[in-house]
Each structure stands twice: as structure tokens, then as C-alpha cells.
Design a protein that fits this description.
The chain has 201 residues and is an alpha/beta fold. The protein is 36% helix and 21% strand. It has 7 helices and 11 strands.
């Protein structure tokens, strides 16, 4: 069976599996993992998207650093309809829900972990905290990154610091969802700048 790179990534993401973008000459010998949640479907101002904004940023980071990727896939997918998804997101935030996700990964062998997410109601989706609270980040370096419609990181880096008090939180970064979707060269430029500041490329 001939599986193309694109189809392999699609299959891996569907199964909630770990996948890698291969070896890249990075500026560090530390092992890097990218963990992210990203949503497809109807998106405000962007129409129906088939690849999530945060997924696009995660793949850019992976391509430039050679990091492994683990996508957080909810057991119960969020609604494709934008307004319906907002209702679910609002309810989950109000109740501090911890939705389950598909699969898992042992993070013990990684030194730097990028944690990516869209901003929903001024916060990361609650499923991201399901992942964070379910793993031991002691001694790890965490780099938060997000996509958004105008709010930036919205203090999520501070919330992650409180959630993972034994980790060292490095300077996070953000990118507008519209840039991720519609201007790949600008998105890559922003990510490259952030990775250089972190000393990773």
C-alpha cells in the first residue's frame, strides 16, 4: 500500500498518534515535542477550514526544528458549526470541564515541549488542560503558542505556568488565525523569528 506523506499525517492525526517531520539541523541537542489542539470546520471570518490554524503553526515549528508532534484529538469532536462550538466551549470553561482525548504520549524523553491551541473565550480550550494535568512536566521547558482573532496569548502562558508549576515556561508566541490560513510566508517568518529568539534554530 502506497501511503503519501500527506495521507500518513492525516492518518496519524486521526488516530491521535505521534508523528515526526524528520531530522533537521537544530541549534540545540534537546529533544523537542509539539503538543497541540486545533479545530477544523466553520471559523469566524475564514469560512470552512479543512486544516486548523494551530495545526498549521505546529507543522511549521516541526519542519524547522525536527520536533515530534502529538495532536490532542477529542473523544467527542467539537461541533463543526461555529456558533454551536462556541456554546460548547463556553459551557466547558464555565464548568472547568476536562474532556477526554484519543491516545496519549509519554513525555518523559522530551526536554522542550511546545503547547499549542486556539484562544477560546480568553483561554485555551479545556481539553488542553486535560493533557497538561495528566502529565508530569517536572524539569521540562514549555513554550506556549496560540492562534487567535485578536487577543494574543490572553494570559494563557500564566495559566499554563500555574497548571504546570514544576516546569519552566519559556516565552510564548501568538499568530492570528487569518495569517496562518492565508499568508504562509508571513506565518513562517513570524515562527522563525520566535524560534531564533528561543535559540532553537
Amino acid at each position: 500500500m502506497n501511503i503519501t506523506r500527506r495521507n500518513f499525517l492525516k492518518l496519524a492525526g486521526t488516530a491521535g498518534l505521534l508523528f515526526s517531520f524528520g531530522k533537521v539541523h537544530a541549534a540545540t541537542n534537546e529533544k523537542i515535542l509539539i503538543v497541540y489542539y486545533s479545530r477544523t470546520g466553520e471559523e469566524y471570518g475564514l469560512g470552512n477550514i479543512t486544516k486548523g490554524n494551530t495545526a498549521i503553526v505546529a507543522e511549521i515549528i516541526a519542519t524547522k526544528t525536527g520536533a515530534d508532534i502529538f495532536e490532542i484529538k477529542p473523544v467527542t469532536p467539537y461541533p463543526v458549526d461555529y456558533e454551536e462550538c462556541k456554546k460548547v466551549a463556553s459551557r466547558e470553561k464555565a464548568t472547568k470541564a476536562r474532556p477526554p482525548f484519543v491516545g496519549d504520549i509519554d513525555i518523559s524523553g522530551y526536554d522542550i515541549i511546545f503547547v499549542g491551541y486556539p484562544i477560546w473565550y480568553g483561554d485555551a480550550p479545556q481539553i488542553v488542560y486535560t493533557f497538561l494535568e495528566g502529565h508530569d512536566f517536572g524539569g521540562k521547558k514549555i513554550v506556549p503558542f496560540c492562534t487567535h482573532g485578536g487577543s494574543g496569548l490572553s494570559s494563557t502562558d500564566q495559566t499554563i505556568s500555574l497548571t504546570c508549576p514544576t516546569a519552566k515556561i519559556l516565552q510564548g508566541f501568538e499568530l492570528r488565525g487569518a495569517v496562518a490560513q492565508n499568508n504562509r510566508s508571513q506565518a513562517e517568518s513570524v515562527v522563525e523569528e520566535k524560534l531564533r529568539r528561543l535559540g532553537l534554530i
